[in-house]
Amino acid sequence: MTGNIRPSRPRQPESPVRQENLRPLNLELIFRHIVATGRPVSRTELATVTGLARPTITRIAEELLAGSLLTETGLTRNGRAGRPRVGLTLSDRGPAGLGLDIRADALAACVVDLTGTVRHLAFAPSTYAGADAPDVLARLAHMARAAIEAVTAEDLTVVTATLAVPGPVHAGVVRSAPELGWREVDAGALLRAALDHLGPLDLPLTVDNQANLAALGELYAGDNAPSSFVYVSGGLGIGAGIVLDGRLLRGARGWSGELGHVTVYPDGEPCPCGSRGCLQTYASLPAILGDEPAPAGTTPDTAVTGRAEEGRPATLAALDRAGTTLGVALADTLNILDIDTVLLGGSFSLLSSWLTANIRAEIDRRVLSAAWAPVTIRPALLGPDAAVIGAALTSIDQVRQHPTTWLARSPGSRPEGLREPDAG
Amino acid sequence: MTGNIRPSRPRQPESPVRQENLRPLNLELIFRHIVATGRPVSRTELATVTGLARPTITRIAEELLAGSLLTETGLTRNGRAGRPRVGLTLSDRGPAGLGLDIRADALAACVVDLTGTVRHLAFAPSTYAGADAPDVLARLAHMARAAIEAVTAEDLTVVTATLAVPGPVHAGVVRSAPELGWREVDAGALLRAALDHLGPLDLPLTVDNQANLAALGELYAGDNAPSSFVYVSGGLGIGAGIVLDGRLLRGARGWSGELGHVTVYPDGEPCPCGSRGCLQTYASLPAILGDEPAPAGTTPDTAVTGRAEEGRPATLAALDRAGTTLGVALADTLNILDIDTVLLGGSFSLLSSWLTANIRAEIDRRVLSAAWAPVTIRPALLGPDAAVIGAALTSIDQVRQHPTTWLARSPGSRPEGLREPDAG
């Protein structure tokens, strides 16, 4: 019996590897090795690890030093007797990444340098619900300017910016952020206009989902971050950032992780999204607060923790229900994705001691693989700052991944060297 | 305010690109271009597309022809006047991939050649539930031998085999396949032993999840397969294969897609897995058949379609419920993953006319992005043969992806050519 099945579908054509392509490839190879080790590396070690000739290493190192991507550090000893060696390490006076975040309690701005160190972190109190988009983004533009000025004084150059928003985004446009009262808001264009209003500035902008950026913050920042996890961002709404094998899973169009709208009870409470029984209607902060919203002067999460610590029965019952429904929705997520770690982030990191037992009970009962492979559930590390730090780290990661692009822009570098064929 | 955040985590060290690596890279480049186009390609076109020198193209083409990876075909015309040109195309007399499947109605074996054409497809009736593992795998080993003999007569060489099983797999071991009554069955070792019992055979074996392989079958075989979709495999159980941006999403440990155990009603019907309200308890074939199992001599899916066509109220109501619960579980999946196409496979492809309306209603109501980006729901193309064809295509894809590995094994090739530095 035979039948005709087509061969696999066309892939993107690839480029052949030729001599003139070797130099930038080898520069990126060396740079990424230094990024990956996270410690000073000697030229000798670079030659050994990469197998490249010493003169090639020397020339590439000079280029990276001139472009402020690397610096020569203090001396390192390799544990044996002998002369201490000069190490190459990531520069803390070169390019930097800016992160901006619109969150429940504040607007936030953050700058990180190439080493991943936070160099600037600022907040401005903000009323969240029903926020007027041009006004919010004008205030963020001022914060961005202030951040850039502050770090310029420390010899840093902000090269790119990322804005975190609580909702799905497409090409800079926020599709739907019910907590802000936004629908189809072109946040990228509004922020661009607000920045331009403050004076000329050559700063590429990206708008991205808050839960995704927070997950990236945890991935980069965590000393022992697992390589696959579901980051649950709890607050006025609920979102998730999914990291699989060290990479953020954005979905086909960048709208993955809408955990707040996973159905828990098909015929349950109506949700503003138009559906019924969404997780959000049981486990968001407003759902936990119920008929008693947070009093003036407190935030929703401090109101919930305060009442829970007092032992108020209604609050404890609401937290029980939140934990159980979170457990059901997360079990669905883990059955679909096969991930074995859940990080409770945002407000859920503060509430984890009331939520974790019920989440675990539902996961152990409902996730098929839990029978032979236990699931880890723990609070996230960065708390409510995860998204703005993740946004800044995402910005600087563009330089980490593509150092030649930065070198071509950097006035201190010799970009013409990149174009000349050189066999090394 | 400053804080210390670690730079991104170590990546796998990469190899520098050096002269002696160029030749196999360029061979793979040329081969993949021919795989991707799916039509005969002239040496002139290869030179133009890859930018490689004509003598390099000629040498590599000879190597691929000698190794039976390519063949010179008939002549092609490019639509203009002039001499017809000799084209290079994938060989149909070289390496081949074997697929084996354990499914509800039968054991199946399939061989595809390098062009993706099915060259052998055979079935043996099989009782499914409570199947004795050594017996089933011994029968499959006989079918594998017969398949290899049949295609050897057509000058094909089966180089690798893939076995599809209805459950999560780890390193050849089937963790749990309730429909077979299997738990922790080392299917890889049992099949290996059964094959060895029939005589010496150098055939690498892989065991993989049925829904995953069926999704790959759809991806490779579909003329217009979308690059991202959820393939739902319906039958005695329910599984899903998730394809995102043209790649199968296996999850952290290869156990993704357990759609049958997504919770629909948290306090609903008990499931053999130990949970309650799993999709499987409402939408699998046994759930749809209810108190009246399929009579002897019919399969569960023909029993369901027969009764539905007769208009039996109990069957129509059960199909309504199956569609609604499938819609709820799929809406969860799409909210989490951001995928806009659902392919109904296995028995669901036969039942799609009774299921689709309810699935669509739930998805339109519950998937956040459906408001601005409609979801496609349609039957899969390959029907119940998807998994065995997908298994065979997965096998041959190893040669497509790594032609140099095959050349090094192939007696007709000149593997020493691969090891000699040659600048082309």
Present the secondary structure layout.
The structure is a homodimer of 424-residue chains.
Chain A: H1 19-37, H2 43-50, H3 54-66, E1 70-76, E2 85-90, E3 95-102, E4 106-113, E5 118-125, H4 133-152, E6 157-165, E7 169-170, E8 173-177, E9 182-186, H5 187-197, E10 205-209, H6 210-221, E11 229-234, E12 238-244, E13 247-248, H7 280-283, H8 285-289, H9 300-310, H10 313-337, E14 341-346, H11 347-366, E15 376-379, H12 386-401, H13 403-409, H14 416-419
Parallel strand pairs in A: 3-6, 6-10, 11-14, 14-15
Antiparallel strand pairs in A: 1-2, 3-4, 4-5, 7-8, 8-9, 11-12, 12-13
Helix pairs in contact in A: 1-3, 2-3, 4-5, 6-12, 9-11, 10-11, 12-13
Describe this structure as you would to a colleague:
Two copies of one chain form a homodimer. Chain A has 424 residues and is α/β, with parallel strands linked by helices. The first copy, chain A, has three domains: 19-91, Orthogonal Bundle (Arc Repressor Mutant, subunit A); 95-212 and 386-401, ATPase, nucleotide binding domain (Nucleotidyltransferase, domain 5, 2-Layer Sandwich); 226-380, Nucleotidyltransferase, domain 5, CATH 3.30.420.40. In chain A, 41% of the residues lie in helices and 21% in strands. The first copy, chain A, has helices spanning 19-37, 43-50, 54-66, 133-152, 187-197, 210-221, 280-283, 285-289, 300-310, 313-337, 347-366, 386-401, 403-409, 416-419, and strands at residues 70-76, 85-90, 95-102, 106-113, 118-125, 157-165, 169-170, 173-177, 182-186, 205-209, 229-234, 238-244, 247-248, 341-346, 376-379. A five-stranded mixed sheet of chain A has the order 5-4-3-6-10. The first copy, chain A, starts with 18 loop residues before the first helix and ends in a 5-residue tail after the last helix. The interface between A and B is large, with 104 and 103 residues.
